Amino acid sequence: MKTRPGNLRVKLPVFVFVLQVIIVALYVAFVTYDEHADARFQTNRTNPMDNAVYRDYPFFTDIQVMIFLGFGCLLAFFRLYGFGGMVFNFLTATFAIQWAILVQGYFQFSHEGKIHLGVVNLINAEFACAVVLISFGAVLGKTSPLQLLVMALLEVPVFAVTEWAVLKYLKINDAGGSILIHLFACYFGLGVTFVLYRPSLNEGHAKENTSYQSDILALMGTLFLWVFWPSFNSALTLKGDDQHRAILHTFIGLSASTLTAFALSAMLNKNGKLTLADIQNVTLAGGVTVGASVDMMITPAAAYALGMMGCTACMLGYKYLSPFLAQHCRIQDQCGIHNLHGLTGLISCAAGICAILMASEDVYGPSFYEIFAHRAPVDGDPKLQELQMLIPGLKPGLGRTAREQALFQVAAVLSTIGVSALGGILTGFVLKLPYLAPPSDEMCFDDDLFIEVPPDYDSPLGLKSTVTTDD
Amino acid sequence: MKTRPGNLRVKLPVFVFVLQVIIVALYVAFVTYDEHADARFQTNRTNPMDNAVYRDYPFFTDIQVMIFLGFGCLLAFFRLYGFGGMVFNFLTATFAIQWAILVQGYFQFSHEGKIHLGVVNLINAEFACAVVLISFGAVLGKTSPLQLLVMALLEVPVFAVTEWAVLKYLKINDAGGSILIHLFACYFGLGVTFVLYRPSLNEGHAKENTSYQSDILALMGTLFLWVFWPSFNSALTLKGDDQHRAILHTFIGLSASTLTAFALSAMLNKNGKLTLADIQNVTLAGGVTVGASVDMMITPAAAYALGMMGCTACMLGYKYLSPFLAQHCRIQDQCGIHNLHGLTGLISCAAGICAILMASEDVYGPSFYEIFAHRAPVDGDPKLQELQMLIPGLKPGLGRTAREQALFQVAAVLSTIGVSALGGILTGFVLKLPYLAPPSDEMCFDDDLFIEVPPDYDSPLGLKSTVTTDD
Amino acid sequence: MKTRPGNLRVKLPVFVFVLQVIIVALYVAFVTYDEHADARFQTNRTNPMDNAVYRDYPFFTDIQVMIFLGFGCLLAFFRLYGFGGMVFNFLTATFAIQWAILVQGYFQFSHEGKIHLGVVNLINAEFACAVVLISFGAVLGKTSPLQLLVMALLEVPVFAVTEWAVLKYLKINDAGGSILIHLFACYFGLGVTFVLYRPSLNEGHAKENTSYQSDILALMGTLFLWVFWPSFNSALTLKGDDQHRAILHTFIGLSASTLTAFALSAMLNKNGKLTLADIQNVTLAGGVTVGASVDMMITPAAAYALGMMGCTACMLGYKYLSPFLAQHCRIQDQCGIHNLHGLTGLISCAAGICAILMASEDVYGPSFYEIFAHRAPVDGDPKLQELQMLIPGLKPGLGRTAREQALFQVAAVLSTIGVSALGGILTGFVLKLPYLAPPSDEMCFDDDLFIEVPPDYDSPLGLKSTVTTDD
């Protein structure tokens, strides 16, 4: 007897349990506590309130809300795919974090053969998870949970290697993750969706639309992301004034892009009405656009201007570029991640480079060499000792000039885009394996394929609403 | 060709972009970082963890949730105006905060011609924003987004001037903002709605009702506000025991008013059932009522009693006063802000005055003169030096007696009500300008006027429910 | 004239106001501020930022979200009982906290006849409230608000006495509350539902099902609980590395159980689809299972394995045990609390005992005697002085061996189960008093009995969906 397409009864448990056994084995073999979580490091000189957990945990909970409720609700915007959006987000995020703890841990947090675990690793792992979820946006509704798990399984290591290589060898400034998170996630996702191209979807799909309730749910997701985005952009900056500026710039950038999004939404709609999809997505553009320079002394005005610029690019992308890519480039970018993370990420990188070129000790004071750590004098340089009088604990750098640092930023952008696009394309081919139960074209954007639905699912109203009136 | 009424295609973009250009120009000219966000102030004596961001940011994120998710969901209680409630709240809040950063900054945070920006300014600006959103409650569903932006444009400066004048010249105690936030917002909003009076709405409106989902959404908004209200009331108190008491009193007041609201809701309903609108609104009365005395040593029992009293006044207001005001005073108070913020605010002020009259050094210890800063001895008084031995850093005050302080509180209440009502009335006249695209009576409480709606909007069910069964 | 069944017009107000008068009187007589909230303790040696509020408040707000939004949304999963789930949760929680402040205060926080109040009491009271809400899960939809208030009125004192006796006399390790919170709540709730047995409900009930929107709402509740659970499990641990580990273990346990829940859900469904009820409930099992050993050095791998085990037990419980208990033991456990809190709690206790038996000073260092405080040497033992050189402030213990401590843990489990089951049964008999307005069998799971509902409630769609297709 042939099983129903979409039947996960054997595949999903087998796949998940194999993964979990491997993960437990790796945790047993390699994972231990870091010094802030290990009881042995508690001595008579330890003040419990100095534990790193009190610096990191508030940012961690904010990012948790973004990942599970923010992304979850925002991805539930389809009328008949609300369960899918929230539930597959939950599954994928949970797996990606567990996996990233191991993979990032191997590259960044291992000493003497052990991965040292603290809340700071969880924050890093949630960033890796955000990368996977952004890429998920490109293929939302067109992938099985198995495909999503495999995507996470492959994307996390490619991301972790890229992150490690860029930070170790290119040594860039990217506090908000515009390059490493947003550009990587975007081009990886585009690579995947390029390979998973479904020609029939370009002719419209009866289930590819929203309902009143799903739109409100997605708007709540947007608001969760909006509200906590300053924590996302500042979680891993230097503590003190750097983190303070990152929060200010993110808030200002977001709030500028929100106003612009409302204006452009009315302007580009033929009836002069607001379009909810714009409010749900384009308002967030400012958070990405300030990313690469978020902790620098760019002035609040520049953060405001960046928010406006990012929003404009993002909006025009949704209006003109996304349809073009779908029609002519085989790139069906379901949630428009290229607009919200790609275009804005590129603007952010450009702005970061400008900020690096214009930065000077006059504006930053001696802490200039902390923020631009690679421009600090090399070990042995007498200038370093001078600076260490002013900022104790300043580490020797590479003595880079502004122009050199800018070139390394460019190199990081180009290599990140290259690696992620290639990684995405290869991952796409893996996802085409028939074992992974991809939905048929007809069953895309439909909860009923993989999830038990209640009786009021796709009710008469729902059927009626398959006649879309969207422009 | 005449454009459709409600067409925002030209008006909204023009208005928003003009505002944004002005705002950017003002940010360029006047806004800089405060000492906790400026890299130049980083020296070898700076401990990054002492940065003010770590004191302020947790309260800021809580208030963010209240403003964007709390107000947003609570204002989405109409059946056909869920988009409008959430989306216009988002737009208005975002603009009000940007604008308040500048206007409050000019009055309260400028030194040497520059506004010094830190997270503490954002908290203050979110309070100004809360003022606008409360006033918005009076005219919900009857105003275009343009009108709301103009309202914010005018209300923020009137608020900022009042706040500055009251704090600088009258020097009052109002930790939870009962006078400056709640009373101001209430009477401003009533002033606006008085001018925007629409006689036909007194005869009922087919769209002025709720649905099952919109009621649940609004209840979530209530819960967001309820949960984080202690942060709202304590965000700007003195640090330490003051902030601690503000949290305790707010929680106790809210929880007392919640129980009372359930009891009264069943009692005043002719079927002995609970009414959801009561649960959504009246449960919150305690948070306002404890406001003016929230950081004083009023005892937990008094906070409990205040919660019960405020709740009772608020509930009776909804039941008897609001209909009276609508029928006989041209005041159509859509969300009943006069009950939730006006009546409770007045009780709160009275309680604050009692607390001031009864406060003594016996109960507070020497920190009495920190909490009631204006009662501290004047500079040169030997008593001041004595106190400074006990509380280092105590600032000289004005040597006011309890009775004097109480009179200044009364003066602040009266002048705040006067200024806000007048400001609201004048703002109302500006909002009547035809350029601002007010909705027709028939299109009030209807998303379809300004926002693209999905096909299931106002479905057969919806039509059926125009026959209201509410009592 | 006879009143409608379910009419609360007299009963609820009378009951609530009597309670509130008693509560105010008790607050007046017994409640004062603790030293961190009392202005008199402010001296020139006090640093305001050292106030306990800054240690406790962030955890308190997280738990607030769990109690009011997490439980609230999760309990709203029935199609026609969304108002009931959220609103009765709100009512019950608010009352339980007020009441627990007094009752727990009497047993744990009173000195010289006064209950000393700070945010830490609120956290404790919210734990007592969580106990009541978990028990509520067993009788959801089958109880009137009056019954719920009476249940809270009785359960809180039984819980407070048990907690006090276990902590004072048995002196156990239970940082995450697996014994005192989860097992107590579970067996109390089962006791209540045993007495309130309704045979007709075993034959199915037309309203005992979900809708698309109610399922999404409940899923949001799950996510709120999931995201903040680390704060719940770590709120009252020792500060520093203990709290850090509690956060890590809870996160790892939850994320392991989430993956396992997805796998088992597909495996046990006859169509190989995911079942939303599993995602809503079973994913949370890991949070309970790590509880009793959450702050110990169990290794991350063990936390992962515990998450998987707890999840498996919980899932099998839902599938096989709950139907059995309902059919053969008169135990109708509406939300399956025996699976999510009972079975997992037992596993957690067993794991805690193993962790105690295997703990050694080698692994923990000298802080071993802080975490296992009762194993510290008794006063006068020279070993104690030695240890106090390493860990200043270490308090003398009872000199228990590992095996002794393990036996006390077992004693605590057995006595907690016994007391709670007995308390639940007795409470069940009180709840049968006719004055308390229990709903008839037919009106179970129906908002319309106690709450005014909007016109679209139980619309044609709703009626249609009474034909359940669930397996």
Automatic annotation (TrEMBL), chains A, B, C:
Q: Cite the InterPro entries for this sequence.
A: Ammonium/urea_transptr (IPR029020), NH4_transpt_AmtB-like_dom (IPR024041), RhesusRHD (IPR002229)
Q: How does it sit in the membrane?
A: Multi-pass membrane protein
Q: What does this protein do?
A: Functions as an ammonia transporter. May play a role in the elimination of ammonia in the gill.
Q: Does the keyword Cell membrane apply?
A: yes
| Chain segments annotated as transmembrane | 12-33, 59-81, 87-107, 119-140, 146-167, 179-197, 217-236, 248-268, 301-321, 342-360, 406-431
Query: A Gene Ontology MF term for this entry?
Result: ammonium channel activity
The name this protein carries in UniProt is Rh50-like protein
Tell me the organism. Xyrichtys novacula (Pearly razorfish)
UniProt KW keywords: Ammonia transport, Cell membrane, Glycoprotein, Membrane, Transmembrane, Transmembrane helix, Transport
Which GO biological process annotations does it have?
ammonium homeostasis
Ammonium transporter AmtB-like domain segment(s): 27-433
- Where mainly located? membrane
Q: Where is the signal peptide?
A: none
Family in the record? Belongs to the ammonium transporter (TC 2.A.49) family. Rh subfamily.
Q: Which GO terms describe its cellular component?
A: plasma membrane
Where does the protein end up? Cell membrane
